[in-house]
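Database export, one record per block. Field names are fixed; values are copied verbatim from the stored entry.
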Amino acid sequence: MQSHDTFPSTDIPHAPASQRPGRNEAEAALVEHYPRLVRLAHLILPPALGRHRRVLAAHALVQKSLSSAAPSRPADAAAGPTVPAQRGEPGPVLAWLRQHVVSAALRAAGRPRWSLGRTPFPTVLGLRLFPGAGGDDELVLESTLATVTPEVRAAFALRVLEGLTAQSSALLLAAAGVSAPEEVLRVAERIRSTVGRDAESLLHGAEFDPCTVQARPTDLLRRRHRTRLTALAAAVLLAASTTAVLALRPEAPARPAPSSPATALAAASARAADPGLLLRTTADRWSDTARVDLTQWPARGAGTGDTALLTRALTAWAQVTGDRSGDRTGVRLTVTPDTPASPPAAPARLLFAGPVDGSAVVLLHDGERIIRYAEPLSDRGEAAVGDAAVGEPVVGEPAVELARADDADVTTGAAVALSRTPRGVRFLLAPWIDESAVRDLRRPDVPAQRLAASEFGVTDPVPQAPNDCGRVPALQVRSSTRIVEDHSFLLADLGELSPTHLTWTPAPGTGAPARQPREATSAAGLAAWARSACALQELRGTGVRAVNRWEFAQQTLPERAGRATWTCTRAESWDGRGRVAVAWEGPDARSRPVTVPGPEPEDTAACSRFGQHLLAGTYWTAPSGARYYLAAGSRAVTAITARGPVSATVRGPVLAVRANTTGSVRLTGTVPGSGSGSGSGSGELRGWGEEETDPGGS
């Protein structure tokens, strides 16, 4: 169904709740403005519902609003014909429907299971529906709206999608039960200013249109199983009913004893430990799905049919994570930071099973975590997948490793480490990876070397980085054109199951809009990461999902000493937390970045799309021996003020002032439009560099 509705940017008078329109009027307005109302409900509902359920819920809430209209009286029809309103012209009936839809969507977002459970969805059997995929800007906006409350999304939709004024939006939100409409409107305005003038056009895109949807089949194998179980249950019920009818003296049925939580937990654990219930994805499923992640990996390896091996892996996982009294299982457990160390609660998905570098390895995915089980092989079973057998088999106890992998995508779900030996790390590549190579991040001019992979997708050993940072190996892979994601990207091994995705944000151009992180495989991106590659070793084993190097400012140095670059490197964990490191880089490309001291919280929005304003400063000694204090801000900073041993104020995003003293300097920056007070329209921005540092001469 294609949407052709229009969205006027004018306020519509709100009809009081007591003046309900008749059902005939409400139905006419609902049919005319149906795509508009469904889009509004879809935007407010939480993305956690899932794309299919969210689409159906939006349609259900709008359709149910008709039941709240007043019954039409026969006298209304007998009153004679009236001149209808022009098509698309706002009126009180549409305002009433809009308020009802907003109220219902907010209630459903607050208590989705209870509210949506009372709203029958449109019936769709055998298909999964979801809106069409939008561009990068639509995806960024969708991700931004997913992090705020439903009330903020409602305020954003009313201001941008419906074109209401702040006063009208506040009245409607208050009528919908929002306790602090002014506050949510302020948050919505901040999002609107971040998105810019394209906010309205983005909301009208395919990503936010639940009336123009794509259809895909459900899990066909699971559906067949459910059909068979339903038929079997119907047969059993029919047989039981017949027996009850024919019995001469039926006894009163005994009430079944309720199962205890311990019994239910034991039953779930038994199912999770059954290798016959492991989920297995078909080989080509990844090439025809809108969800390209670990759930689309097929089961690969020479041991996928080894029931004994799979049983040992599942048993070891359950025992080592269920033992709270100490390690008495004989299995070594390794858990990546912030990863739940819980036993299996449901059948996991099998990704790989087979021999690798002298060990039997089983790789599982339970929807949120990757589980790797490895046990040493006997001398007879010594083998390696994708390469000649390693000289000596791995000896020692079995091991279980757990790592977070929720919301893995095309890049962060592109490879998983299978084994680590002195020869290097073998990775299991995703089925959508067409090409793989190894390159040294420290040498961007050296071409990447092709990395061979076996028929199962297991790569040759990738050398590990030495402690002296003489080289920093990284995977450079290219995705298949079959998923319309034909692009190459970099993955760095930081000692965990999932390698880290490396991206790069170039310096802002003059008058150019804010730039988004991009893949670091271009010549400029590789040259940028060549200077930051050594800092990756500090992140080993910390649960990092992706690292972005942002060049937030460039500054011409005094005395014609060249051009310096200010960077902020953000390492983001799987749970969304991020740690940042701000650095100053001189004009010599061979010199390493100098870290600028400052606050280093492990959970900050700085240097992300939600923290785009940054300010940093440091002391610098020119080649002549003269000492300066330098400071730079991101592209939105219009003025910088330094107080302390250095006192200066400049207009613009960079500062360079002669400094004859030393000591801590307090920096503040002005960012237009960020102030919350009335009148000034600007705010102060604290920055890095409050302690004394000196990157030395250029």
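Remark 1: DSSP finds 15 helices and 26 strands in the chain.
Remark 2: The longest helix spans residues 220-246.
End of record.
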